[in-house]
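Quick one from the shared queue. A colleague (R.T.) flagged Diguanylate cyclase (GGDEF)-like protein as missing a structural entry in our internal table.

Convert sequence to structure tokens.
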Amino acid sequence: MIETEDLGSLLDTLCPMYVLINDEGRIVQVGPTVQKLRPEQPMAGRRFLDVFELQRPRSVTEFPTLLSTPGARLRLRFQDQPQTAFKGLIAPLSGKGASVVNLSFGISILDAVRDYALTSADFSGTDLAIELLYLVEAKSAAMEASRSLNLRLQGAKLAAEEQAYTDTLTGLKNRRAMDHILGHLISTKSSFALMHLDLDFFKSVNDRLGHAAGDFVLQQAAMIMLDETRSDDTVARVGGDEFVLIIKGVTDRKKLDSIARRLIAQLCQPMKFEGAACSVSASVGTALSTQFEMPKAQDVLHAADLALYAAKRNGRSCHRFYCEFSNARQSG
């Protein structure tokens, strides 16, 4: 016959989450894992129902009733905080005047492992909880790797889309981006002004000082245009030395003329490249979306082109508005 001490040692090895209870309902001994959950509260000698709250079966409120239902599946939790939940199974020990309640964490195992810093040594070697923990850990690692990969792919996609809409030399929007923005503004019936700006005498800078100087001038011009416009306006490079500015929500001619004049004044200032002066100017033509009953992108762009040609015919380094009744020859 197995003595109580030998029984406790055997249970420690086979099911470290057991509670050994005598017929009076007092705890005789608990497994090492159960005690680890309350390391500063010895459980031996305490009443079982003072330590654990019985939630299932609901009909059982007294310990003698619990003993009369051997094999019953139990739902329990600690009386004090944290109220860790358990599944349990009670089995009487024949001739010992005692019963064993074998506990497990059930679906709360992950919380228990985290809350009590449990390891594989705290479970029976045959407990499937160990495999479950390994699977959860592997799944978490796989999900983290997948999330990281998705973020990288999303970042690469956004970068590719941004690159597709960006002029690589100046960092401005390109013609594709301009077309997209114009289409959106027109589809939403938003008012806007479209300025077509051309750098005068740019070819002479390229011919005299080389393409590196020309690239420098384009980059400096881009910075000036960004400085003179708002963050929600659009500045796009649509050709070698041609730019389009889309000014959202502004159709007041005085305001627009002031913007164009500031641009021209800034762009007329000589730019120094490797000690050499790069001198250009700018001609600007502006068309308003409100000048069209049903604006189309190509019509607004064509109108701004006509206004630009009028500015160039007027001696360059000036600004003209499109006038639908005089083929853009009249100043705004």
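The first strand starts at residue 18 and ends at 22.
Residues 328-332 have pLDDT under 50 and may be disordered.
Added to the table.
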